[in-house]
C-alpha cells in the first residue's frame, strides 16, 4: 500500500535511512568508549579492550560515511519541504560539516595511533598496520582528534536541535525524509 503521509520521492532512500541511523548509533557508541578508556588507569586490563572497540567503531564510521557520500552522489537528497533558502543552506552546511568531521575523526584517530608506531586491531578480526613512528606529526593528529571531538559534540547537538525545531516549531515534516514510510492505519 502507498504511503499516504508523504510521497516516497520526498524521502531519502531506505539505504540512506539505514546508513544514517547506523552512523548515529555508532557515534553514540564511539564517544563513551573513548571516555571510558581514557578514565581507566594506564595498566587497567579493560583499557586496551576499550581502545580496540573505540578504534574499531571509528574505522566502521569511516567506512560507512564513505559509503554514504558515494550513495548520496548517486541518489541526491530529496527536496526540502517549503523551507526558506537560508535555512536550507544552514542545513546543508551542517550536513557537510558532519560528513567532514566523521571523516576527519577516524583518520586523525588512526594516524594518532599509527604514528606512535602502533597497529590498529579491527574488532580482533584483522590488524591495520601502524606507520613509522613520527614524534613530530603524531602530536598534531592528537590535537586534531582532541579538538575534533568538540566539533562532533557541537555539530551533533546542532543537528538534533534543528530536527527538534523542525518537529516542534516549524512542523514542516522535514524529519520524515529520514524515517521509514508509515503504513496507513486500517
Automatic annotation (TrEMBL):
Keyword Transmembrane helix listed? The answer is: yes
Describe its membrane topology: Multi-pass membrane protein
Q: Cytochrome b561 bacterial/Ni-hydrogenase domain spans which residues?
A: 11-180
Molecular-function GO term, any one: metal ion binding
Co-factor(s): heme b
Name the domain of life. Answer: Bacteria
**Keywords tagged on the record:** Cell membrane, Electron transport, Heme, Iron, Membrane, Metal-binding, Transmembrane, Transmembrane helix, Transport
Q: Is the keyword Endoplasmic reticulum in the record?
A: no
Q: Where in the cell is it found?
A: Cell membrane
The main place the protein resides is membrane
Recorded hits in Pfam families, A to Z, give: Ni_hydr_CYTB
One GO CC term on file: plasma membrane
List all membrane-crossing ranges.
18-37, 49-71, 97-116, 150-169
Recorded family membership? Belongs to the cytochrome b561 family.
Q: Which PANTHER family match?
A: CYTOCHROME B561, CYTOCHROME B561 BACTERIAL_NI-HYDROGENASE DOMAIN-CONTAINING PROTEIN
By what name is this protein known? Cytochrome B
Amino acid at each position: 500500500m502507498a504511503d499516504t503521509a508523504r510521497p516516497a520521492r520526498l524521502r531519502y532512500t531506505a539505504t540512506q535511512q539505514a546508513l544514517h541511523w547506523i552512523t548515529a548509533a555508532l557515534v553514540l557508541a564511539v564517544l563513551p568508549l573513548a571516555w571510558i578508556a581514557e578514565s581507566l588507569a594506564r595498566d587497567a586490563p579493560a583499557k586496551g579492550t576499550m581502545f580496540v572497540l573505540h578504534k574499531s567503531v571509528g574505522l566502521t564510521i569511516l567506512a560507512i560515511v564513505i559509503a554514504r557520500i558515494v550513495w548520496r552522489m548517486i541518489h541526491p537528497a530529496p527536496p526540502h519541504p517549503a523551507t526558506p533558502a537560508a535555512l536550507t543552506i544552514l542545513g546543508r552546511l551542517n550536513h557537510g560539516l558532519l560528513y567532514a568531521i566523521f571523516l576527519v575523526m577516524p583518520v586523525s584517530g588512526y594516524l594518532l595511533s599509527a604514528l606512535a608506531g602502533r597497529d590498529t586491531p579491527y574488532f580482533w578480526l584483522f590488524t591495520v598496520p601502524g606507520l613509522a613512528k613520527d614524534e613530530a606529526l603524531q602530536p598534531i593528529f592528537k590535537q586534531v582528534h582532541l579538538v575534533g571531538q568538540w566539533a562532533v559534540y557541537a555539530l551533533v547537538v546542532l543537528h538534533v536541535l534543528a530536527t527538534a525545531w523542525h518537529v516542534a516549531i516549524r512542523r514542516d515534516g522535514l524529519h520524515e525524509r529520514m524515517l521509514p514510510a508509515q503504513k496507513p492505519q486500517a
